[in-house]
Amino acid sequence: MGETTIAGYDYGEVKPSPVTREELELLKRSVLFGPEDEAALRRAGEVLGGQVEDVLDVWYGFVGANPHLLAEFSTPEGEPVTAYLERVRGRFGQWIRDTCARPYDDAWLAYQEEIAERHTPEKKNKTDGVTSVPYVPLRYLIALIYPITATVRDFLAKGETPAADVDAMHEAWRKSVIMQVALWSRPYATALW
Amino acid sequence: MGETTIAGYDYGEVKPSPVTREELELLKRSVLFGPEDEAALRRAGEVLGGQVEDVLDVWYGFVGANPHLLAEFSTPEGEPVTAYLERVRGRFGQWIRDTCARPYDDAWLAYQEEIAERHTPEKKNKTDGVTSVPYVPLRYLIALIYPITATVRDFLAKGETPAADVDAMHEAWRKSVIMQVALWSRPYATALW
Ligand code: HEM
Ligand code: HEM
């Protein structure tokens, strides 16, 4: 999979998550995520696999068109950091594949916490050694659930799959993204998480 | 509208929100919420208006079936507080109507902050004078975006509306709920919001 060539992608090499498997189980129940969703995500991975760059074009287009979002990839003075945008893009693409194909086990949970921290003052900018603003505001992390879930539908529909299965894949994608943002909110909310 | 008969419903009577209209504007852009969504929500209000109790039956059924959610309406020892569940139900029903029909102005923003705080140690339990756990964990607030958005579709589809309009109403509902949860995360994340 060429994973080792993705700059700053440290799946399998990070500390364990403070979130337990039991807490993950309860989150799964809260978003109604079950074995059918896992299966649907595997199929979604097949459909999206060849379109990852196109999906990223849409998302990066959205970020680029919104100064309040581009700011998080920019210097504190507001100059976009191209190398930062590019390096994160590679990891974002891998995240699409991971969301569809990885088992949601301890290694996954550990990397969820890593992604969370990379959005906060704890770790933002460090992986890429860049000078940028210190954190991504939590409200935008939550808000982007909408574009990141709505925009995959067209790509899911490009496969040979019947409409009912596009629906199943799309719902599974929504559940997973919402659950991941819930996990990523942990270092923001700490004791109230 | 009989609003004054809803126990603990204080719309229009709470302090201004610390969130500015400009911040709200940027959140709207982040979830792609525009004038067509406002219009779609007005239509959704017409369709959902007569079904509010049925919608609440589904959501309360979900909460009741999940001990980790029912716990937030229970004593610290785990005994569900019936009066609490019932009083909040009235306000929850009104929230469905408000989400569809209210302008998202300063009064709305102020009540958003009030709803937020009522999920946190700041204000939970106080409105109803009950003894319950001190806060709703942020992760469940985010996770419930899924059931609260997925389950309205059947109700929206019960109107006389063509499928394309059901889609438009449903997307507007999703955007609004995600944006509201983003607003409600403020007292949880404070400086990182
Ligand atoms: C649902 C919403 C979001 C998803 C799914 C998401 C996903 C990701 C992923 C997968 C990564 C790379 C993780 C890794 O290092 O392996 C990442 C990093 C990053 N994201 Fe997000 N993100 C979201 C919201 C946002 C928002 C709203 C912003 C603000 C514009 C943002 C800015 C960033 C930045 C700046 C990084 C690099 C962090 C670093 O310095 O390592 N993200 N995001
Ligand atoms: C998208 C998710 C959620 C929505 C839309 C939502 C909506 C609401 C609304 C509209 C109210 C009444 C506000 C008022 O007082 O006027 C409320 C209160 C409440 N909600 Fe939520 N809620 C969500 C998530 C949760 C979760 C996950 C729980 C945990 C089971 C929860 C537990 C409560 C409780 C206990 C109250 C009463 C708070 C008090 O003491 O005043 N909510 N919620």
From TrEMBL, chains A, B:
Entries under Pfam families matching the protein: Protoglobin
InterPro entries named in the record: Globin-like_sf (IPR009050), Globin-sensor_dom (IPR044398), Globin/Proto (IPR012292), Protoglobin (IPR012102)
Top-level taxon in the UniProt lineage: Bacteria
Positions of transmembrane segments: none
GO MF: heme binding; oxygen binding
Annotated ranges, domain Globin-sensor: 22-191
CDD domains: Pgbs (cd12124)
Name of the protein: Protogloblin ApPgb
Native source species: Georgenia yuyongxinii
